[in-house]
Amino acid sequence: MVVGACGTVNDRKGTDQWLRVARAVRDRGSHLDVRFRWIGQKKTAWPDDLVAELGLGDVVEFAGQFEDPYPQIAAMHVFTLPSREDAFPLVVLEAMALGRPIVAFDVGSVLDQLGDAGVVVAAGDTDAMADAVVGLLDDPAKAHTLGKAAAARAREIHDVAPFHEAVRRIVASL
Questions:
Q1: Total number of domains in the chain
Q2: pTM (2 decimals)?
């Protein structure tokens, strides 16, 4: 199983928080064969020190940047957003469109994006995020249901067709 995140490796994106979630998931879900994969540019070596400190070297991978990250995100069993701040995290919409179950910190517009089609926990609460991740990994049916709900919500709210129709109505009314 793969628990993933996506974005530039830095403090704002919460890479350190994600690593603490990984440690907690590993502690709580020792019965799970889980790996943690971060997709995105890594400009610094500091996360490697924290990976070593937390004893995660055998389960954490910083995969780097991909021209097309969608196959990487689609392969994740749970997508996480550990950001400290993110006004409108596009990656959440991308993971939703790919039908991934999502666990995210309550930052920016995440709650509006996900609604009840994902799990939103208090910003910075790595224990709550870890519990939610383990809960989804332990319950594949629930994870599947959330993924389907996320994909449906992405189509319903953020698909271009409804936007196009709304613009057409506005123009016609003028």
A1: 1
A2: 0.89
